[in-house]
Structure formats: C-alpha cells, structure tokens
Amino acid sequence: MRRLVTRRYLAAAVATFLVLGVAGAQQQGAQAQQAAATNEAEISIQNFHFMPETLTVKAGTAITWVNRDEEPHNVVSLERVFRSKAIDGGEKFTAVIDKPGTYNYMCAVHPHMRGQIVVQ
Domain ranges in the chain? Predict the structure, then answer.
C-alpha cells in the first residue's frame, strides 16, 4: 500500500513538473513572438555601459536606449546612421535601422562606452 501511495505521489509530482515546464516554454515562446511582432528592442545604459553590448535585430526594428544612470549620455553611430542628443537619466532615444549590416556606436561624452548593433 505504501508503495502505491509513493508511486501516485511521484506520478503527480512529475505531471505537475511537466505541465509547469510546458506552460513556461509556451510563455517564453509567446514573449519572443510578441517581441518579433512589435519589432522593438531595448538597450540599457547603466553603470557607464551599454547592455547588451552587442544586439542582433531584424531590419526595421525600433531600438530604444534607456539611460538608467544619473549622468547624461548620448548614442553616436560611427557610421553616421544615428545620433542622439544628450540623454539624461530616465530619458530614452529610439532609432530604426532599415539596412542590414553591423553598426558600431559609442557615447561621445564617455568614449570608453561602446556598443554594436547587428542588423539582419
């Protein structure tokens, strides 16, 4: 009798684990589809870094930099494709890149801050 209860408990635990795993995978898939459908991506500016440092997107994606530092920063494309004004803490800058390629950028205020966007 004890073995039967243990097996049922184990079967119920495995079933619960599988259901939660499938639900989590479906949620992640839905989030990825939603991001793809909206063609939006975000880069955080924090602790004097661009995060992620390299971002890969599809052509036509709206890329938004959000300054989470207290210091102002800007975003300057080395290929002269986009350039922001000074972005104060809490402010945003958005650019859309339509041509595939690799685009390097930096903060002209803090030249050690560099990032890259790969457009496919």
Answer: 1-38, 40-119
116-to-13, 20, 23, 37, 62 alpha-carbon distances in Å: 45, 36, 34, 23, 15
According to DSSP, residue 39 is labeled: T
115 φ/ψ angles, rounded to the nearest 5 degrees: -150, 175
pLDDT tens digits along 91-109: 999 999 999 999 999 999 9
**Assigned fold of 40-119:** Immunoglobulin-like (2.60.40)
* Residue 117 near residue 92, CB atoms below 8 Å: no
**Contact assessment for residue 50 and residue 65, using Cβ atoms and an 8 Å cutoff:** yes
What is the per-residue pLDDT across 22-45, written as a single tens digit (0 to 9) for each? 444 455 444 444 444 469 999 999
